Amino acid sequence: MAKKIILLSGPSCVGKTPLIESFTKTHPYTKLGRPVLYTSRPPRSIEKDGVDYHFRSEQEIRALPRERFIVGKTRHIWQAVDLDELEALLGEYDLVIYDLHPVLVQKLMKHPRVQELDAAITRIFLQPASLQEIENIHSLLGDVSMSEAVASIMTPKLVSRAQQQGVELTDEVMRDIEIRAAAAWEEIEMGQSWDHIIINHDGEECANWKETPPRGEAGKTLREFVRIVNK
Fold it and tell me: How many whole angstroms separate alpha carbon 3 and alpha carbon 14?
C-alpha cells in the first residue's frame, strides 16, 4: 500500500477534531499516525501536553530549527510541525493525518524534506458553508465585509464550544473567539486551492458528532472524508 499523508484544514471549530475522532472510531482497523503539533496557546481544560499538543512559549517555537521544523504564525498563535516525527510515523504507518492551519499546509508543501518523501499528499479543506451560502448571508446582512459575514457563522459555534468545555466567557476568551472568527474568511479563501473541499454545517459543537457513526451533516461529512482517504 502506498503511503498517504492527509492534510486537513479549515477554520477554528469547523469540525476537524471530531471528524478525525469519528474516523478512528468507525474504522478501528485502519491504523494511522497522528502527529502532535507544537503550539504557543495555553492548553484547554481537557488537553494534555505531549498528547494533544506540545505546549510551548512563542519564543521556544520561533527558535525551533527550520531544517527539522515547519514554523508559522496561525492567527494570533505560533505552531510548528516536527518533520522528524512525520518521517518516523511514515515508517510505521501507511496513513498519517494532520489537522493543520492553512499557513502550515502551504509551508509544509514547499519544504524540501517533504517534497522528497515517498508518499501521496492530499489536502482537504473543511468549510462551514458553501461560497453561495456565504454570499447569501453577506447579502442579507447588508453593509458588512465578507469576513464579518463568515464571522457571524463561526462566532456562535466558537461560543458554544467554549461553553461545552466549561470555559468562562471572560473578556480574554471572547477576544480569542473574535480573532478566530475574524480569520475564518481569509482561511476559506486560502482553502479554495486545496485538492478537496467538504462543506460541513455541523461544527465542532454539534451534538451529531457524539453518535457513532455521527448523524446528520456530520455523518455526511465523515462519509465524504472516508471516500477521499480511500481513493
Answer: 27
